[in-house]
Amino acid sequence: MPLMTLTRTWRMRSKAKDGSQPLTLGRDPSKLASSRAVYGLGSLLVVEASWGQERNPVKPKILVVDDSSDIVLMLTDRLEASGYTVLAAGDGQQALDLIETENPRLILLDLQMPKMSGLEVLHRLGDQQKLACGEGNSTEFVEITMPPVVVMTAHGTIAKAVEAMKCGAYDFLTKPLDMDHLMLVIEKALERDTLKREVAYLRHEVASRYNTIIANTSQMQTLIELAQRAANSDATVLLLGESGTGKELFARSIHQWSPRRNNPFVIINCVALTDTLLENELFGHEKGAFTGAHALQKGKIEIADGGTVFLDEIGDMNPDLQAKLLRLLQDHEFHRVGGTKFVRVNIRVIAATNRDLLQAVRNGAFREDLYYRLNVVSLSIPPLRERREDIPALANLSLQRHAREMGKTGMTLSPEAIQVMQQYPWPGNVRELDNAIARAVVLGTGSVIRVEQLGLGSGAETKVVDPEFLGYHEALEHYSRQLLEKALHRANGNQTRAAELLKLQRTYLARLLRQKQIEH
Question: What is the Cα–Cα distance from 500 to 520, expressed in whole angstroms?
Answer without folding.
Answer: 16
